[in-house]
Automatic annotation (TrEMBL):
Organism expressing this protein natively: Streptomyces longisporoflavus
Basic and acidic residues compositional bias, start-end: 176-189
Main location: cytoplasm
Protein name, UniProt field: Translation initiation factor IF-3
Known role: IF-3 binds to the 30S ribosomal subunit and shifts the equilibrium between 70S ribosomes and their 50S and 30S subunits in favor of the free subunits, thus enhancing the availability of 30S subunits on which protein synthesis initiation begins.
Upper lineage: Bacteria, Bacillati, Actinomycetota, Actinomycetes, Kitasatosporales
A Pfam family reported for this protein in Swiss-Prot or TrEMBL: IF3_N
Domain of life: Bacteria
Amino acid sequence: MSAEPRINDRIRVPEVRLVGPSGEQVGIVPLAKALELAQEYDLDLVEVAATARPPVCKLMDYGKFKYESAMKAREARKNQAHTVIKEMKLRPKIDPHDYDTKKGHVVRFLKQGDKVKITIMFRGREQSRPELGYRLLQRLANDVEDLGFIESNPKQDGRNMIMVLGPHKKKTEAMAEAREAQAVRKADAKANPGRSQNAVAEEADKAPAEDAVEADAPAEEPAEA
């Protein structure tokens, strides 16, 4: 069955409870009278409660109503928060520069409201030193504790050790803040058209990025051997 309500000549009942274009109650009227009023107001007669006795109909611009409903549904989907799990892979003997780089990615993910799966990959004799991975995971968790918390404690998974960090900030909050920051940047760019492209690009780089870096991977994928 179609989800579309019946309108105008498709309504097949002898009388209806009519609601005016401003929401006022007109009362129970013959269908012919309701259609006459719809034509007089240059509106549609729309059945809004088919199971009522008699059915409730309203005078409205049905085309405008459908368009506004579609826009509301689109906005709701746009604002819907989808929990994403990013993945960051580290080696137990990672050098300071690489650590800072990867920590920066973890910080960005947590700021965006995403969870982060941290995987420590052991090679060869490193497998006999699991404490190295555990200490590295604890260090990372401490470094980002203002943005996230340990949702899943470190655990050994074959030749890997895994920990999951959860964000303090909800995804919806992060999305709202990102949109607000973007609006501020656009307003600033409009108010200052003479600013250099380099300055605009630098600010854009500081904004939370939607695209994952090459280190990202869905949590469902098995960790690399």
